[in-house]
Amino acid sequence: MEWLNFVVCLTFAAFITDVFSSAGNEWTYRGAKGPEHWHLDFPHCGGMKQSPISVATSEVIIDMERLTPIVFKNYDTSSSVDYTLENNGHTVQVDLNVKESEVTGGGLPGTFVAQQFHFHWGATDERGSEHDINGKHFPMEMHVVHYNAKYGNITSAINKDDGVAVLGFFFEIGRYNDHFQEIINHFRQIMYKNDMVDIKSMPLVQLMPAKLSKFYRYLGSLTTPPCYESVTWTLFNETIEIAEEQLVSFRTTVYENVKDDVNYGRDISDDFRMPQCLFRRRVYASHPDLQYAIDTTEDPTAAGTSSQPLIALLISCVTFLLLSM
Ligand SMILES: *[C@@H]1O[C@H](CO)[C@@H](O)[C@H](O)[C@H]1NC(C)=O
Ligand SMILES: *[C@@H]1O[C@H](CO)[C@@H](O)[C@H](O)[C@H]1NC(C)=O
Ligand SMILES: [Zn+2]
């Protein structure tokens, strides 16, 4: 397993020198235009600061001085203007048409304006999140995408080093979640790619967990092409609860094809990219509780704990680094 991952990392390294870029802007999560091939059309996808990553909790650096609580502005107010819910063929995305919610502090390099949020989910409960903690994946991950206010809009911020901040939230199966149901209720209006519908806006705080002071921080990229390495990532420790039946709506109601495509139809599930090599980066944590050794007494057959391959991936990435110095 380890040698295999080592080869994977060496292959990644080879991509770094890729400077060719062919025409075409289509990409998918499977097949000939899948993640292993993204770098051919989108060279940034072969870079050394890619996302997502696997967070190894024993390796994180605690930095309480810098990673103070994030300050949320207008996250608890409701916009008078509707949100737009869209199926873009890769995910379901909610666009915030009025840019009034902002985050600052928490070690973020500026003030960041909320632009949109979207989801990554699996066909089963054991997978779906893009990031993982010690190899444990969650059934869904939400990304709230913000642009740095100093760039004025997402278009000019998206490829700047300090252009984007994404807040990442993991989901766990639990109680029925009324707030997400308001979004899910509209899924049958956006069944196919490019479908969109206006939905009533809601305070963003309703979609987030209560305690937000414990988080991981690292520098990475967009997890979809063009994979710009412009993202300051924040991954929160507290998870969002959602009922299994609600996740089933994500899995079965929205499709990656346009309506007229009679030859092809597939639901969007498994719209996640595999963890990328960390290379020279470090992951920081806002609280000492977030640095812990992997609990080896945990039942290895338990759902969602397939840590071995990813730990091997991390080890091989470090090995690659040492060999290349
Ligand atoms: C985004 O900001 C840039 C730079 O300020 C500006 O030139 C561009 O027109 C803006 N784009 C949109 C879509 O507003
Ligand atoms: C949150 O932190 C606790 C330890 O303080 C850990 O057991 C739990 O798995 C963490 N969850 C996430 C999503 O990081
Ligand atoms: Zn995302």
Describe, in plain words, how this protein is organized in 3D.
GO terms for molecular function: carbonate dehydratase activity; zinc ion binding. Keywords: Glycoprotein, Lyase, Metal-binding, Secreted, Signal, Zinc. Residues 1-24 have low confidence and may be disordered. This protein is of the alpha+beta class and 325 residues long. 38% of the residues are buried. The protein has six helices and 15 strands. A hairpin with a 6-residue loop joins strand 6 and strand 7 (112-121). The strands form two sheets. Strands 2, 3, 4, 5, 6, 7, 9, 10, 11, 12, 13, 14 and 15 form a 13-stranded mixed β-sheet that branches. Strands 1-8 form a two-stranded parallel sheet. The protein has one domain (2-291, 305-324): Alpha carbonic anhydrase (Carbonic Anhydrase II, Roll), CATH 3.10.200.10. Helix 1 crosses helix 6 (307-324). It has helices spanning 2-16, 38-41, 154-157, 178-184, 244-253, 307-324; strands at 54-55, 61-62, 70-73, 83-87, 92-95, 102-105, 112-121, 132-133, 140-148, 164-173, 196-199, 215-220, 231-236, 240-242, 284-285. The longest helix has 18 residues, at 307-324. It starts with a helix and ends with a helix. One 2-acetamido-2-deoxy-beta-D-glucopyranose is lined by residues 133, 170, 237, 239, 289-290.
